[in-house]
Amino acid sequence: MDQPAISIIIPVKPGFSITAAQRLAAVDYPPERYEIIVAEGYSPSRQRNAAVATARGEIVYFLDDDSLTSPGFLALAASHYKDPQVAAVGGPSLTPATDSLLQRSIGAALASVLGGGGMRNRYRAQGKARLTSDSELILCNLSFRRERFLACGGLDERLYPNEENELMDRMRQTGAGLIHDPQLAVYRSQRPTWRLLCRQFLNYGRGRAEQTHISRRIQPASLIPALFVVYAALVPFLFCSLMWLPLAAYGLLVFAFSVREASTARSLGMFFRLPLIYAIIHLAYGAGLWWGALGTLLGRRRKPGGEVALRLVKGLDDPPCAGN
């Protein structure tokens, strides 16, 4: 039986290069059964939707321009689609060992319970392939059955980020199966500076708030960072010593997890970076939730826009190509 045709879709900003191109040239999959589409623009949700509309594959596989894949990733993903109930298959995004100490520290924090929470399996290869929810799947390494993607209306172009979470939430309401396979891991670098880390989690929080507004479904765990931000802002003005106990407990947790992750990595430098990383993840995400909630209340929703230019790097009948 022929392998299913797969369309690899990579959204980029105009003029950006595809650092993952060399890895894609080494894909171990029948060359006539996969294509690579680059979607240029400034609205990733719209770029992905436009590429899916023209894709010829039965499966569409979303990667980011710097998602470093293994040779067998397409064959492994395709094997899960033998079950007709499966609508989406993905794996984690791991931090390369060649990243800077800050980037590796961010990766360690996100893969921990304190930093990543229920989403930590997006950043670590743990366990076996399994049915899952959107909490374990990440858009830089995620595939969909094309017909199910289109039947559900694709990505909501008002959202970025969290557009894939909203789509998979809708899919699950229809009984679709989502698969997380740790062996499908890609390698992708974390943010290289403190400023970009803050910006990343502000946007993650904003995206979650906007997703909640659109779906009308609240995830109680996502409220904790928002409440923590309020508490952290008020605690300097609280003169009752008992009110400082939660902050003290939080500090002990941060210290304990910093010791554990730094010990596992055998890195003293990581220990000194992790406490601030944990604080940024929680406070920036919580602030982003308030930012997104306020924006929706004021009617300041993100408007999809901008032209999308599609470029076929490799067609279904073309040989593998290392160019971009």
Short account of what is shown:
The chain has helices at residues 21-25, 44-54, 73-80, 101-110, 113-116, 146-151, 163-173, 194-215, 223-234, 245-265, 268-297; strands at 6-12, 34-40, 59-63, 86-90, 93-94, 130-131, 141-145, 177-180, 186-187, 309-314. The chain is α/β, with parallel strands linked by helices. The strands form two sheets. It has an eight-stranded mixed beta sheet with strand order 6-8-4-7-3-1-2-10, with helices on both faces. The chain has a two-stranded parallel ribbon with strand order 5-9.
Account of the 3D structure:
There is one protein chain. This protein is an alpha/beta fold and 324 residues long. It has helices at 21-25, 44-54, 73-80, 101-110, 113-116, 146-151, 163-173, 194-215, 223-234, 245-265, 268-297; strands at 6-12, 34-40, 59-63, 86-90, 93-94, 130-131, 141-145, 177-180, 186-187, 309-314. The chain has an 8-stranded mixed β-sheet, with helices on both faces. A two-stranded parallel sheet has the order 5-9. Helix 4 crosses helix 11, helix 9 crosses helix 11 and helix 10 (245-265) crosses helix 11 (268-297).
